[in-house]
Structure formats: structure tokens, C-alpha cells
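Aim 2, interim progress. The first record below pairs a target sequence with its C-alpha cells.
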Amino acid sequence: MTGKKRTFVLYPSLGVGHLIPMVELAKHLLRHGHGALIAVVNPPDTDAVSAAAVARLAAANPAIAFRLLPAPASPDVGAHPVKRDQDTLQLANPALRDLLLSLAGGADALLLDMFCVDALDVAAELGVPAYFFFASAAGDLAVFLNLPYLYPTLPSSFRDMGEALVRCPGMPPIQALDMPWTVRDRESDAAKVRMYQWKRIPEGRGVLVNSFDWLEPRALRALGDGVCVPGRPTPRAFCIGPLVNDGSTTGESGERHECLAWLGAQPCMMVYVGLRVLETHLMKIGTDLWVLLVDSWKHQKKNIGLWSRELSGDLVHRKSTSGIIFYLGSNLVTWASQKQKVVALSSCEAEYIAAALGACQGVWLSRLIADLIGGEAQKFRLLIDNQSAIELARNPVFHERSKHIDTRYHYIRDSIEKNLVDVEHVGTDEQVADILTKPLGRVKFVEFRLKLGVVPSPPVPTLGRFEEFVKAEDVEAKVRLVMEAEEGRILRKRLGVAREKALGATKEGGSSEVAFAEFLRDLDKSSSANGECN
């Protein structure tokens, strides 16, 4: 325990991936006898961290306080996700301000995610010291702080520079094609948002870095010398890591997560076999591969199914084709195009059969999501572009149109009666699932393809290059190098040394503990300068 007890408000960016590192930081603060409250922005759209996810983390970590901050969603629904996230975080400032003012004893400091730079305005208004928590390596921090000044001086965007080397203080030269996807095109909205965010980080009093001194001396020296941010002071970096959940438990309760327990019991070769299967599948597809870009998983409760069919698409057996698309929030999670098992006598019947299969899939998905997030299965929406099929699904009375349909396909009626599904009409021009069942015109095909989130596949790196796909043989060669070759033995030895150094850094008197004490002293100086008025 270090001195007096302080209260810290931790402010992660959107998404569970930003929340989890803040939980680890909160645990670190608690171990040193301080209080921690995590303020989670919760907009009403798919960028939110669901209340269920926060509740689960709160149950696993009862000593950490959590607060959901209601905030409006980005008004620009068509913008890049990075831009929408920034808009939402800006709109959350009033809720954050109200939270800080409501704390009885006030907040001693605001610890911000690297993307929550607009919260600096709230901190300045209320006189609360603001620091950033950088959950990645100090080398990444050095690069990100330098890019807003370096990028405008380069001859072109990273995407056009290929293998040209980019030189940032504190890091070895980096190939332009290895830069983050969000900044490949410097004229894009995503890149402009990132440059804005990284340029504002120096406005904080300092940065808590999830690393340790021994691991990254070069980057830390550049940060300490102030060469990463030209023309203005560089924030002090406090390496207090590594703060890592070892995966053995889900929180303070000590209970191991069932998924981790299962994974730990599986043979390592399962991973290799999976790679083999994937690589074989890619070879069958060929080089003209289209990949699906999906946002981070964000525990959304609502899922949406879209179904289409092509009547008698099979010219031999005259069976129709069903198209299946399911979204979780705005993320496409499952899709299929399959021939129906029976011959449909009309478009209404074909659509009805497809809807029944959609109901089965949707109910299963809802139950799966409920099991994953620990809640009740939620009703989902099934969008159909055939009004007759919708009426047939809603009508519990069998009549001429349905008496000959196999009983199993009436599952859709049972699901509606049990309030498991909402069947809604969607216009044919908006039925994205048509891309799986019908020959579309080029304009409509491209439109639906974009709505699926499918884009031409970027080249995949192999051995530092972006010219071909990684093959199973490449993975096998690297695994054998690590496990069998002399080079691998040397690498394993170095990793063992790094592990011991990491353990030493977090022990009493270690470099990370010393850095944390220095952070607290810096905070005390800030509080004294502000007259203890937060």
C-alpha cells in the first residue's frame, strides 16, 4: 500500500476489448489500497458495451465500482466506425462530467483510454488531473505520438509506400505496409481521427504504460528524451506493467471460465489441424477470395435474420434455393445458400420453408448468445420480402396453401406464438439475402456486398511480406523452428529470461512498482498545484 487512499475514475473507450485492460488496471489500484470506478459509455447502438457484459465483470470483481454512462449514438450512421466511436465519446462528455461531480469525495485522477482524448476537456473544466493508460507496448506509444508530426511530411500515404521504411524515434524502421489499417490512407476519416487522438495525448499529465523498463529501453529513452513529440513537452511514461490476466480466473472469485477450462484440456495439435483445414479450404476457393470484415464482438442482444429464396432454381430437380443471413447488431455472424429439400409449389411456399429454417437458426443463435452472456434468450427479427409467406406464418389455421407442407416447416408458427421471433416485411430492393440466391445486376450486387461487409481481400503477410497467403507449410516451419531448431532453443531461453524480468518488475522494489510510486508522487504534485480542489 502506498500512502493515502485515492479514488480513481477509469474511462475506457467503446468495446469490451478496451474495457478488459481497464479492469486489470483497476485490480492493480485496488492491490495498492486505492479505490477504482470504471465509467463505461453505453450508447444505444452496436458500438456499446452491453450492460450484461458490465454486470458479468462487476460480479467477478465486486471491489471495483462500475457505472454505465448513457450517451447518444453518433448521428452519422454512415461514417467509418472509427469516426462514429469518436462522435459517441464526444457526446458522452456531459454524462462523464455529471458522474465526476456526483462523487461524494471527488476523483483524485481520471485515467483515460488512449482514444478518450475529448474527456481531457471535462478534466480541465473540473480541475481533475488526467492521465492516459496505454495497454500496449511503449514502442507503439512512441510511434503513435510521433505520427501526427511525421505523416504529413511523407511523400504519400502508407498504402502507396509498399515496403518503404518509416522511421520513428524509439523504434527500428517499420515497413509502411505494417502500419495499422486505420491510418493506411492519410486522407481517410479514420486516419484523421487517429491523428487527432494521438496528437492530444500529450495534453495529459502522463501515460501509464502496460510494459516494464527492461523490455523496451530504446522506446522509453526516446519518450524520456522528448523526441517523439516535436515542439512540445512529451508526457512522462510510467511503465507499471505487465498488467495481464493470466487466464486462470475470471475475477476475484477465483472461478475459472468454462471456455478456458475446455481449451486448456485440448491437445495442442488441434490448432495445427485447424490451420491445415483452413489452408486446404483456401486452396479449393482459389486466389479470387473475398473476405468478411467484422467489427469487434460486442455482446449485443439483438440479432436480425434475413431470408431469401429462388423459386425452382435447380433446373434438374426443380427445388428452390434458400439464402440465409444473420446479423448480431451490425455484425454478420452466419450466412448460407442451400437447396431446399422439397419442391415448393409457389414462391409463397418456398419463402415459408426458408422462413421456418430461419426461425430454427435464429432461436439457436439467441440461445447461444444467452449462454455466452449469462442472460435470457432474446426475441429476434426475421425479415422476409414475401407478404403471403408472412401471413401464412402468422395464421395458425391450416388452409389450402399450407395443408400439404411438411409439418416440420410449421416451426415458424410455433416460434411466433411463443414470442421467440418477430416476422417483419422488408422490401425486395432491401433484401440483402438475395445476393445468395439470385443473379443481380452489378449495381445491386455491389450494394448488397457492401452491406454484408465484404471487400476484396487484402494481401496476407507471410514472413514479413504481403505478396501471398500464409500456408500451413509456413506455419509448420515456424513451429518446428521454435520447438526443434537451435534458433528456437535460443528464443525459448530469451523468453524465459523475459518472464523472470517481468515477474521481478512487478515485485516490491521492482521497476514497475517504483514507477507506480513515482506516478502517485506526480499526482500529489498536481493535486497540490490545484489546491486539492477537484
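The second target in this work package is listed in the same format:
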Amino acid sequence: MRVRLHSLVLATLVLCIWKADSLNYCRPSMSCWPSIIELSNFKREMNATGAADVLTKDDSDWPTEGLTFNLAVTEVPGLIVYVESVDTIRKALQFATKYNIEISIISSGHSFPGRCTAKDSMQISVHKMKEITVDMGCEENNLGCLTAQSGVQWGEVYREANRHSRLVVGGSNPTVSVTGWTLGGGHSPMSRMFGLGVDNVISFHLISSDLSEVWASEKGVRTKSIDGSETSSNDTSLFWALRGGGSAFGVIVDITFRMHMDNQIAQMACSYPAYGDGFSETFRVMFNSLGPLLTQAPNTFSGYILPSVGCDPVSRACGGTSVISIVHYGPSNGTADDEWIKKFTDLPHDWIASGLTNGSCFLKEYPSFYDYELSIPNVTYTAEYLGGSLVQQDLLSNSFTNTIVRHLDVAHKRAKVNPAYNLFGTAIWVGGAVKNTPVNAVPVHEGWRNAIFSLSFATIWDIRYVHTPPALQIQGVKDLHKDLARYSHGKYYNEAEADMTPSEWKKEFWGESMYEKLLRIKKSWDPKNMFTCTECVGFDWDPVREPANGVVG
């Protein structure tokens, strides 16, 4: 699924070169790797606290399934450390530093590019860090604040907020953890109403590379070193960097979010399957009638558009499905939005008049945002290649629709030749309150502030039977997003290609000047590049050849 197989191999090799290569991490096959006795002592020390487990590949309870949800990027670590406290995080970092073991950090493992995984690394899992606290009297927000540890998943956050008649701006998939989603910016079903996830963060609590405990907020930063001494300043640069700069600054302990009033949620969803050569016209008809509404609707509306192409595994009939889901922050009637609700619910009648008679729609009300989230299906393990684009509202046009349709047609023709060929799209409707935060107030790409969609297309394969990434399918995704570049500006850090060149991902995630600012902050907090991952800030920075203080040796 990538360009061609040799191009895929070349891209993989280049990725290895781009990563700082003089750190000389210790690997399990090397003599520097901790001995059986040293690993046993480490396990005993960590388990003595009653709050952590250490696993090596020889242990019977070593995970046998995928360590990340995207099996295409899963790398097998050298050992896994399950931490549950500041103390166990520090001990894990000390052990990795002592033996020069690369560090990867994982929570729920939903990272499409695989930032939570690294071959032969010490994989620090925060999955067991599950504390949630609510402060209804916090001074930062009159509707209350919620603090979630880094292993908490969004469904757990929504459940706790619901107990207080509140909601938090978080991910659509309730099994995604709060940490990686937030550090990358975070789009949500509630973003058009309340902004991106990072627009709603009050503070971060983390462990830095020197093992200090750090609290960062708009008031500044407070640090508590491992010897117990404390310092504070009004420097807000780390707080700024963490709100969209990715996961290369430390190990997150917890994040505090602004809460909002909960509400009833109304959802209209329609699914229109179509088989045969003309199936892409279904998408064109649906999108052309929906598009004008999306640019004008109140912030209380959000939604998703999901076009897909594939073949039925039994009948081998090939075609596609167009799914549209409109979500309303409020009930389906009796509000100031009744006129707009009618515009959306009238759309199926227009589609029928245009000849689309094989679809189905439903209108459903949920008593709360949490109840709506309970209806969202879980993500399953799969091998996937994904690309992303931030489609700009002022560039939305018939030409944009034609581009999508053309690529759906190409995918359909290829699927008829190879029934395993597939293409899945997800257009997250943004805009609204996302536009309210000034550009550069947080380090997400400026394209977010004028985007109408965060649009991704992906292709999947079953690695049990397809052992080599299918080059043609991957190239189809690449070609599509290349053509979408004329309508987009930037990419979503959490949903984009994992094999871009350094100049590409720096530009597409942040822009050159913003990246340079992030790198300066990174160097001040992590001068030895302890925390690194795919396409993260400092991914290609070599602190040996280019020391953070500018002094070699």
C-alpha cells in the first residue's frame, strides 16, 4: 500500500537515518543490556512499591497481541514497565538512563504513527494510572475542573463529568486515553462548541528528564526536584509547548481540564451504500447538499462524514458507503436551533428526490454527552496506513468534491481487480469555536483556525495474510492527500502520514517558526533528548553533535 515496495523500504531506511543516530542505545542483543540478575533486582525494586510491574519477553504474561492498535507500526520493546506513581516513573527513567535504553511511552496505544512504540525500548506504560478528581470550586473555571491521570480513557472522563452534570472536550472514541490525544491538539464532537482539546487545558503535571516533578499552567511553572527542593517562575513556555507540541517533553502524570455544562445530545445519522460504477455519485449528491450548511450552521452542531470503498467478502460485490452523522448540543426540538435541525433532517428528502433511495437514516436523542459516547463503537486492532489534511473553509468548492469523487472512483476500480483493496475516509467537521483561539496561542498548526474539516483517508490490511504492506493501497492514500494539498493548510499531529520527511512534518504540524520555538523549549527541558518518538519535536535532533547548550564535549 505505499508507493512501490522498494520505495517503502527506502522510506523506512530513511526514517531510521532521520532519527538521531549517535545516541547508541543499548539493545537486548548487546553486552550492555542489563543482566538477568540486574533485571530481577529492578523488578523486585519496582514491585516492592506494590504499584508497578516489569515485564521482559521471557515472562509468561508478556503481551501476545498487538502493543498498539495500528499493527503496521508496532515495534516490540525490550521490556515493559507499568507505572502507577511519580516514584515508579522516576525509578523507570533512572534504570533506562543507567543502561542507556531508549524510552517509549504508551497509554491506550491508539497512535496511528506509532509514537508510543520503539524497537528494543523500555516501554513505560501509564495505563494503570487511573485517578480522576473533580473540583467544582476551582478558581480557573466557574463550572469546575477535572483532573485525569495519564492512563485514564475518555469514556471514564465522560462518566465522571456526567456525575456532576458536566462534560469535558475529549476524543470521540471513548477508549482513547487523554494524554496523547491532548498533547497533539485534540479534536472532539464538542470542538465546534468549545474549541480543541488544548484550548481547554488548565494545567499539566509531568516528570521531566532530570526527574523533577513539574506543574505547568498559564500562571507559570513549579518544579520539585528529586531531592525535594522546589522552585517556581512565571515562565509559561512549557505550558504553551505541551498544548499541541506533542509528547517529547516528559512523562505526563495528569492533566487538568476545563469542564462545561452537559446537555442533551441529538444525532441524525444516515448511511447510503451503493454498489456498481456509479456509487461515487452518491457521495457527490450527499456532500453537495450538505456542504453549504456546514459553513453556516451554529456552533451547537458538529458531525462526521465517512465515505468508504471496498468489496463484500462474501458476494465480492464492490462499491462504497457514504455515512453522515450530525450531532447537536441540545435536544432535537424546542430550542433556538429548530430551524437548523429541520434543514439537516430535510436532507434525506432531497437525496431521495435526487434518486438516492437505498439509504437509511435515524434521529436519536441522548440524555447526556456521556450517553451519546456510549453509542460509539470501539476501535479494533488492524494494520493501517493513514494520511491527513486540514481542509480550509475558504477553499471548499466543487473542485474539492470532484477530487474526492475521482479518488473514490479510482479505489473502486482497483477493488474490482483486487477485492482486498479499500479506502476509508473520515471528515471531522470543525470550525465554530475552534476559530476563536488566536493563531499561535497554542502550538497547533495555524490551519486549524480556518479549517472546515480535519480530513483523513486510510487503508487497512490483515497482517495475518498480508505480510508486506500493500504498496498500491498506500500509494492511493498518498496520492489523494497530495491532491488535497490545494484545499488544505497543515495536518493534524495525531492523524497524518508517519513517513514524511523532517521538513514535511515540521511544516505540516506546526510551521517552521513554531517548530523552532518548540525545539528551543524542548532543549531547555530535555537537553539529552531522553523523550523522542516518530515525528516528535527533536526527532532528528542529535544532542551529541548539537548539544543543547551549544558546547560540544
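The longest strand covers residues 318-329. This observation will shape the mutagenesis plan for the next reporting period.
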